[in-house]
C-alpha cells in the first residue's frame, strides 16, 4: 500500500514490520497472509491521532511523531473519537488492539475470493487489513457514525484502497451486498441480530462479541449450519469491544443508581467479594439473572486512596455494597431495593463452581430466528441459558 500523505514523510515500514513480528512472536499472528497485511498497512495514516487521559484531561497525540509512532505500531488499543457530552465523556470509537484484530481475522479462516462484512468501521484499519488480504472489492464495512465513515473512506482512498463503506446502523447488516462469507463485528451486541445470520451464506462464519450486560460475555464464533440455524463456541480468550449503539453520537444507557440505605438489609459474607467480582464468567452467568441494566463500581474515601467496597445496582432500583476488608464476622454486605443483588452474584459463583469452573471455551451459542441459547459443552446440554433478543 502506498500513501500520498503522511506516510511519505514518515518512515513507517520498519515500525509496521516490527509490529507484525511482535504479534507473531506473541502467538497472535500465525498466517503469512495476515503478517503481510500488518506489515503493509500504514496504521498511523488511518489513526493520525489518538486521545490519552491525563490528570489535566484528555490530550490529543499526533501519531506522526516519535511517541505517537511507537504507540500506533504497538499492540495497544487507541481511543480515536472522544467527546464531552454534558458532564461526562463518551468514547465514540477506538482503534482495536492489532493483536486482537488479527486473532479474530485468522479465526474467520478466509479464503481467496471470499467476501466479508465488518460491523464497526472505526478508523478503517481492519478494513485495510481485510482489503490487503482479499482485495478491496470483497470488503464491506458499516459504522453508525457518518463522520468516521467519511474519514476512513478518504484515508483509505489516499492509500489506493476502496472497500465499500456505508454509514448506518449495522444491526441491519448490508442486505444489498449480501450474502457474505463472513461477518465480523467490532462492537459488542447483547444478542445476535438475525439479519447477520440471514446475510451469511450457509457454511459462513459470524464472529461477534456477545455481551449480555456490561462486561458479561466474550467472543463467539458462529457457523451458519443451516438456513435457520447458526451455532458455535466462545473463544477461550476473553475479549471486549465497545457496545453497539443504534444512533450516531448516542451516549451509552446509564443505569440510575439509587442507594437508599434506610431500607438496607445488612449481613456478613464469608466469601471475599473479589473472588466473584474478578471472575468474568461468573458475571456472565449472573447477567442471566440480573438482566441487562447493570452498573457496578468501587466506593472509597476519595480517588487517591484504594477503594474500601464494591457495589452493584440494577435498573429496578436494587443495589448492594460489600466491604473489601473483613472483620471476624466476614465482609459487611448491605442490600437494598426489591432484589438481593450480592446473593445473586454469590449464587452464580456457586453455580460456576458446581459446573466445574468452566472457562469461556466450554460455552457455546445456538441462534435460530426465534431463540438464542447459551449452552455448556454441547448444544443439547442440560445446562442452558436463554439469551434475551
Ligand atoms: C472498536 S471500534 C471499531 C474499530 C475498527 N474496526 C478499526 O479497525 O478501527 C467500534 C466501532 O463500532 C461502531 N458502532 C457502534 N455501533 C454501531 C452500529 N450500530 N453499527 C455500526 N457500527 C457501530 C462505533 O462507531 C465504532 O467506530
Automatic annotation (TrEMBL):
Q: Which UniProt keywords apply?
A: Cytoplasm, Methyltransferase, S-adenosyl-L-methionine, Transferase
Q: What PROSITE patterns is this protein classified in?
A: PCMT (PS01279)
EC class: transferase
User: Where in the cell does this protein reside?
Assistant: Cytoplasm
- Does the keyword section mention Chaperone? no
Coiled coil location: none
What are its E.C. numbers? 2.1.1.77
Q: Record's family? A: Belongs to the methyltransferase superfamily. L-isoaspartyl/D-aspartyl protein methyltransferase family.
Q: Which organism is this entry from?
A: Actinoalloteichus fjordicus
Read off the InterPro entries from this record.
PCMT, SAM-dependent_MTases_sf
Gene3D superfamilies, per the entry: Vaccinia Virus protein VP39
What biological process terms from GO does the record include?
A: methylation
Give any GO molecular function from the UniProt entry: protein-L-isoaspartate (D-aspartate) O-methyltransferase activity
Q: What is this protein called?
A: Protein-L-isoaspartate O-methyltransferase
Gene Ontology cellular-component terms listed: cytoplasm
**Keyword Transferase assigned:** yes
